[in-house]
């Protein structure tokens, strides 16, 4: 859901249009301006999400205090879960970069660089939010030649640089191709402003997985601290009479010996009968 | 000499390989973390090179992106691939990053009528074989469905039963019976589904959105509406032939404080007599019914627990809990809410009980 605020300017509108182009079949861009403030009142956002059945949204606005403002958020059960406000410092749009673009609806590759993304809770949630927003539908197979573009997020000096590149696969000596990148899409420099993150228990509730989806634990496998994997095998009782040992050729019964053994057996049998 | 040339060749081959791989290898201090299900890579290396770069930031960023993408592509190319319609397709693993859900986890559905009954009685599904031996065709056939073992519909001869009308079409009768069974099954399935949906969204006021309600539902809704007035339905008008609603009036009735002295004396003396008597008073039929029902439930619960735990622990002892067997005791009415042990029961039951199925847990009226 891409929504314009009451006072969205040209930059912000263009950003929303570009993101809509990136997310083409799965997004909805609202044309009219909506006079709401997400951080104060979330009811209108929740109403929109219920109507359009979307759980991710992006809201753009502009005022003197917060110029070029972009709010990215997600919902759980049609209530706002997380919201992050980002300021756009620099923006180069899709149409400003003149080269061929990739077709709509391709699943992008996402790369996050910089250790900031794991240090603060804010950044961690932002990373999870961006993954949620920009990854496409979950697929089980992917055509290797169809990996066309990559979105690269770098956290540097308190800013987040968002770049999108088109992938060119060049020949290398072996099976895996060499990558060359060509800048294609929108590039944004973002600054983290306010955040409205969900409380821990709401977040935990939203992460709850039904039992069927939980990864099944493999039984009889254990790991020790050194990384060695141990497995347990349950054996049935072995019939030792059928055990096959090494054959010693010298101990094999010769034909003469076998005859004597048979004779003795017959004798013993006759005795028994009597 | 030859040895040297062989060594040289090997070294050269190694160098060639390294050169080839050089085009796709990238050196990083910290390995990236990959989530191939999401086509995601996380680089934890601190971006020291970028901090000092000023005007060349874009080029630096692009270089970093190229390196990271190369590593991700290397990982992706190592996945198992297959050829689907002349395109090379890699099978992606499950995404490992846990992201919050959009909608809450669906609530567990309420049990259907059969499931409730089976739970109460302790009936468990019998394990059936997939194929059944069919004498007629002389082969193993499936139990139901296409080309099943004993197919009623394919019979060419049906005996007319003694009490049936000789001119009746038995084949048509069979087909009709089957249609009725199918319709009944479908009706029950839809009813179960409706019940499940009703539980999912508990609606208010008993009104149906489309207006198609059964007589009982309408009656219930009307009753509820009648009672939701300030005087709790006492002065509501009724239609000419409508009967008074049952269940109105006081829920508990107490005897007047003083009135019938003879009756009061009689009831007090009776109470004293029961309390002083050595033998307990018991209502036989009520006691046996309650007993049987409790036993059934306990059995069912135990069997369910056994089937869950018995698989893990394997071969534990069967339920060794005590049975309340024995003939029901004689006696008159039983008074009061005496739960727990009987003073004059058979010796086996009194005293300590094994197995934890304690009858005294429930209060009895």
From TrEMBL, chain A:
Q: Which SMART domains match?
A: Brix
Q: Does the keyword Nucleus apply?
A: yes
Q: Which InterPro entries match?
A: Brix (IPR007109), Rpf2 (IPR039770)
| GO terms for biological process, alphabetical | maturation of LSU-rRNA from tricistronic rRNA transcript (SSU-rRNA, 5.8S rRNA, LSU-rRNA); ribosomal large subunit assembly
Q: Name one GO molecular function term.
A: rRNA binding
The family classification in the record reads:
Belongs to the RPF2 family.
- This chain belongs to the protein called Ribosome production factor 2 homolog
Source organism of this protein record: Trichechus manatus latirostris (Florida manatee)
UniProtKB/TrEMBL annotation, chain B:
Q: Where is the composition biased (Gly residues)?
A: 337-350
Residue stretches of biased makeup (Basic and acidic residues): 235-245
Q: What is its main location?
A: nucleus
User: What are the entry keywords?
Assistant: Nucleus, Ribosome biogenesis
Could you mention a single GO BP entry for this protein? ribosomal large subunit biogenesis
Asked if the record carries the keyword Nucleus, the reply is yes
Note one Pfam family from the annotation.
Answer: RRS1
Query: What's any one GO cellular component for it?
Result: nucleolus
**Region of interest (Disordered), residue spans:** 231-253, 281-365
Signal sequence segment: none
Q: What does this protein do?
A: Involved in ribosomal large subunit assembly.
Protein's UniProt name: Ribosome biogenesis regulatory protein
Organism, by scientific name, is: Trichechus manatus latirostris (Florida manatee)
Gene transcribed to yield this protein: RRS1
